[in-house]
Amino acid sequence: MTKALFINGSPRKNANTAQLLKRAMEGATEAGATVEMVNLYERSLNYKGCMSCFACKVKGGRKGVCSFPDDLKPIMEKAVDADVLVCGSPIYCGYPSAGLRAFMERLIFPAVNYSDFGHPVINKPKRSATIFTMNCPNMQIYKDNAYDILMDTNAQQLGMFGPTEILYSFDTYQFGDYSRYDTAMLDEGRKAEVRRTQFPQDLERAYELGKRLVIG
Ligand SMILES: Cc1cc2nc3c(=O)[nH]c(=O)nc-3n(C[C@H](O)[C@H](O)[C@H](O)COP(=O)(O)O)c2cc1C
Fold it and tell me: Rounded CA gap, 44 and 145, in Å?
């Protein structure tokens, strides 16, 4: 059975990124996969990015998977074993969240083959996708901010494991109650409208994405 792993790189377990991931998970389930979600910001998860231990490069050692002994180790095993991997992250200061970046370092570096750059160590090919959520209102401004380079380059690294794609969710509703916060630069009315009209479409695109990744 297809194993699909969903990685939430938002600290919030039920906000925009998580909701899209959950919908993608529903699509993957509908298509027959076994699914699991990992919240990287779970307080019980203590980990950092790559610790430069080089265990993944030791001669005769196990290649292609990060074996650094911390709370991410079992998750890295699952990520390597997954047939489908979906990572989600908000844009934080122009980049994917630090939590997702740490996960990505631990996933990507073991696959980099120092003996032959042209042939990464792929234990299991996988279809993958990245879901990005953001205040940024549309693709034109996304590009104006160079997010198509800063963000997409990160997502495209998953392409070393097989076909990968990106789902963008623009202009997300950030706060439960905008009136509690200093948000003069944000148009709450428009945000609410986008939440009502665009976000449900993004959820449906996430559902279709989850299904498509499993069906292949
Ligand atoms: C620390 C921080 C930095 C952010 N930086 C950006 C940014 O650079 N560009 C942007 O469009 N949105 C930015 N945002 C907004 C979030 O990307 C957006 O609200 C996102 O949908 C939040 O995801 P979540 O609801 O899953 O937590 C930032 C939010 C936070 C908390």
Answer: 35
pLDDT per residue as tens digits for the range 141-165? 999 999 999 999 999 999 999 999 9
The model's pTM? 0.98
Half-sphere exposure of 210 (CA within 13 A, CB side): 31
Q: Which atom of ligand 1 is nearest to the CA of 136?
A: 11
Nearest CA to ligand 1 atom 31: 92
Calculate the CA 29 to chain-centre distance.
18
Q: Out of 3.40.50.360, 3.40.50.150, 3.40.50.300, 3.40.640.10, which CATH number does the structure's domain 3-215 have?
A: 3.40.50.360
Token readout for 169 is: 């969710």
* Centre of ligand 1 from the C-alpha of residue 97, in Å: 9
The answer to whether the CB of 129 falls within 8 A of the CB of 166 is: yes
Three-state SS string over 100-137 comes to: HHHHHHHHHHHHCCCCCCCCCCCCCCCEEEEEEECCCC
Give the Cα separation of 62 and 163 in Å (integer). Answer: 25
Domains of the chain, residue spans: 3-215
* pLDDT of 151: 98
Q: For the chain, which residues score pLDDT lower than 50?
A: none
Contact between 158 and 85 (Cβ < 8 Å): yes
